[in-house]
Specification:
It is found in: Nucleus. GO terms for molecular function: DNA-directed DNA polymerase activity. It comes from Protea cynaroides. Pfam families: CDC27. This protein is α+β, with helices and mostly antiparallel strands. It has two domains: about 50 residues; about 45 residues, no CATH class. It has a three-stranded antiparallel β-sheet. Helix 1 crosses helix 3 and helix 2 crosses helix 3. The two termini are about 25 Å apart.
């Protein structure tokens, strides 16, 4: 269950995204509402779960590619494109530990 602070932040995110058409990242959310990065990610995940159908969600995929020599790779992928690909098909290009974040 979400606490009162989380509910207030979620309503603020709704106002920022719908009224001001501002891009919200977990880093921005963490700095502006003085919450940890992990809490900001959790809040964005909760927000996208409730309002995701009307949003353009962009994910960052980052990690070491299985190249010789290995190269660190960062890629922005739209939520629709990511949903169309199975996560396992993406994993074959990266070493086991890679990150997925969304904005």
């Amino acid at each position: 269950m979400a606490d009162v602070g989380s509910i207030d932040i979620l309503s603020e995110i709704q106002a920022i995204v719908s009224d001001k058409l501002q891009v919200v990242s977990y880093k921005w959310l963490s700095r502006n509402f003085t919450v940890s990065s992990n809490d900001a990610k959790r809040l964005l995940l909760e927000f996208v779960g409730k309002h995701g159908s009307g949003l353009e969600v962009v994910y960052t995929l980052s990690g070491w590619l299985k190249n010789d020599p290995p190269v660190y790779h960062i890629r922005l992928v739209s939520g629709l494109k990511l949903a169309g690909q199975i996560i396992w098909s993406i994993m074959k290009y990266f070493y086991f530990n890679f990150s997925i974040y969304f904005f």
